[in-house]
Amino acid sequence: MSSTLNPSNYREKMREAGGRDDALYERHDGKVLESEHTGEYVAISEDGRLIVGPDDLAVSSQAIAQFGSGRFAFRRIGWDYEGRIRSFRA
To answer: Using an 8 Å Cβ cutoff, are 33 and 52 in contact?
Structure first.
């Protein structure tokens, strides 16, 4: 039986992912990057490896290649949220 994505479980999954990303950012000292890299993007692997750069697509592509899809936190450095509007599409 396949699971169907609906708006309520989509929002819950996004909250879970955001919480995980926040925890990795805090655990692996993402705030240390803020003094010199605010506005750039960071991917943080589950074991603390970092990829930093100004291009979100380049950073996320490199992180997928090195860490594996879904195995890293991705954020804009110095921002409380990634800054993109994500919408549910049925």
So the answer is: yes
